[in-house]
């Protein structure tokens, strides 16, 4: 049965009758709830694998990214560390609602995947929960604040940096996929998606 959710941040459907596809366009207030419902639906349908599409996802709410990551990770698993001057000021861990644990999962990323989407992709990959396909992500991994001056001008100051579970800072480095697959302008014009195709092939080979 095909299942599609047309809400703002999450869309889902069944591919080839046995692969659950979830597109997360940004991390908004409804993202975790919608993703959780989609994952549970696919789990009940006994799909052979999941594809989480976070291509061109610019990020959004950090809390939602941590909660979505928790769908694959046991309670207490490190998702992200926030550091200032090399010192950890905050550590984010999974809440443990790991309903997707054990389901073969591919995450699609590209140069438009940034911030919260990189946190999710990095946390899941570093904890060996998913396989990454696509292109290297954008590389946005800092916490910034605006300082307002009396003359109306503003200054953006970096106050902290985000670090993946493997200890790497995301900023300016991005996240490299396990398998690099390009998507050209010609592919787009021809309505082809080699990255999605590669994800389906991977899941079909790794049942």
Rough outline: globular
Per CATH, the class reads Alpha Beta
Percent helix, as a range, is 10-25%
Q: Gap between N and C termini, in Å? A: 20 Å
How does this structure look, described?
- The chain has a single domain (10-79, 95-139, 168-205), classed as Alpha-Beta Complex (2-enoyl-CoA Hydratase, Chain A, domain 1).
- It is 24% helix and 29% strand.
- The chain is built from 5 helices and 10 strands.
- The longest helix has 14 residues, at 31-44.
- The protein is globular.
- It starts with 9 loop residues before the first strand and ends with a helix.
Write the layout of secondary structure elements.
Elements lengths: L9 E6 L3 E6 L6 H14 L4 E5 L8 H8 L8 E7 L2 E7 L11 E5 L6 H11 L4 E4 L7 E7 L5 E10 L15 E2 L4 H5 L4 H12 L2
Helix pairs in contact: 1-2, 2-3
Short description:
By secondary structure, the chain is an alpha/beta fold. It contains 5 helices and 10 strands, in the order ββαβαβββαββββαα.
Descriptive tags:
207 residues; alpha/beta; 2-enoyl-CoA Hydratase, Chain A, domain 1; 6-stranded mixed sheet; 4-stranded antiparallel sheet; 5 helices; 24% helix; 29% strand
């Amino acid at each position: 049965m095909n299942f599609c959710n047309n809400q703002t941040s999450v869309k889902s459907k069944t591919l080839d009758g046995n692969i659950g596809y979830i597109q997360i366009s940004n991390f908004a207030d409804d993202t975790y709830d919608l993703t959780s419902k989609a994952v549970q639906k696919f789990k009940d349908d006994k799909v052979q694998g999941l594809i989480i599409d976070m291509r061109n996802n610019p990020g959004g709410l950090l809390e939602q990214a941590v909660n979505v990551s928790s769908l694959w990770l046991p309670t207490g698993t490190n998702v992200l560390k926030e550091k200032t001057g090399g010192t950890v000021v905050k550590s984010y861990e999974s809440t443990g609602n790991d309903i997707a644990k054990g389901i073969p999962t591919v995450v699609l990323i590209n140069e438009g995947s940034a911030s919260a989407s990189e946190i999710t992709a990095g946390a899941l990959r570093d904890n060996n929960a998913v396989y990454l396909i696509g292109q290297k992500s954008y590389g946005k991994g800092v916490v910034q604040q605006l300082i307002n001056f009396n003359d109306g001008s503003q200054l953006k100051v970096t106050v902290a940096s985000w670090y993946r579970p493997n200890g790497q800072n995301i900023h300016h480095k991005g996240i490299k996929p396990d398998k690099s697959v390009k998507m050209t302008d010609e592919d787009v014009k021809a309505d082809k998606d080699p990255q999605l195709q590669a994800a389906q092939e991977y899941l079909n080979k790794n049942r």
